[in-house]
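Lab manual, section 2.4: Encoding a predicted structure.

Procedure: take the sequence of the chain (261 residues), apply the prediction step described in section 2.3, and record the output as structure tokens. A sample record is shown.
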Amino acid sequence: MIYFHFFITFIELFNEIDLKEENKTTGSSTMSPAVEFAVNYHQWILLKFMPFIHGNILEIGTGKGYYKKSIHTSGYFVSIDNEENIIKHTKELDPDGLYYFADISDKSTLNVIKQSSFQTILCFNVLEHIEEDEKALGNMLYLLEENGYLIIFVPAFRTLYSSKDKLAGHLRRYIKKSLKMKLKKFNNADIIKLEYFNPIGGVGSLVNKFINHRSLNNKSIRFQTKFFDKYLVSLSKAINPCTKNIFGQSLICVIQKKAMK
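Recorded output:
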């Protein structure tokens, strides 16, 4: 384990700068259909964050609505996305839901929800898609009530960047240091949880570097997702406490907005 720690520390030296990829992939084309099979994986993610999810919730990135279905809150649940087609389609499926077209990195588009108050903001697998991610972080903190929680889930380690990331529209992968540096610019952001997540998935991402995937909807990716969700989630969950400080496929972060004196 000590040697593995040194190896990961060495890797992090090459992960401090954002990946500069020419990537035009956006919207629903970045969402793998295989994700619908990852039920155990999504439940594991929510289990990590449930202690911090409460009150009125704002979801950044509507996607396919996986998390709204699983989260029960006494408040209201608002979801925004910067793809009009996604919002339109989701409203058709859930006409009673609160869905709005807005870009979290553009403060002027957030007027649609400015009268709302949020105790929790969820940003799951979205920040890596946003070119101006620091503006997005600032806007999320602006919308969050004091003492509320901003919950972030992003892919980890530039070294793991593969053709799958490019197809998914990922502009970067994060490490603890890079995310801390971005959040350091906001004096009202108190990081209360920051750790790596899913070591087995991280090994899988490393393997995928050597495969030139051409579509997120191919048999290989569907098989990987189904196999991992059925057989490996429990193993990765068991190992995770030992690796959370040094390695994982993703990085999880919980930020509490400090009350300003």
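Check your result against the sample. The beta strands are 57-60, 77-81, 98-101, 118-124, 144-155, 189-197, 250-257.
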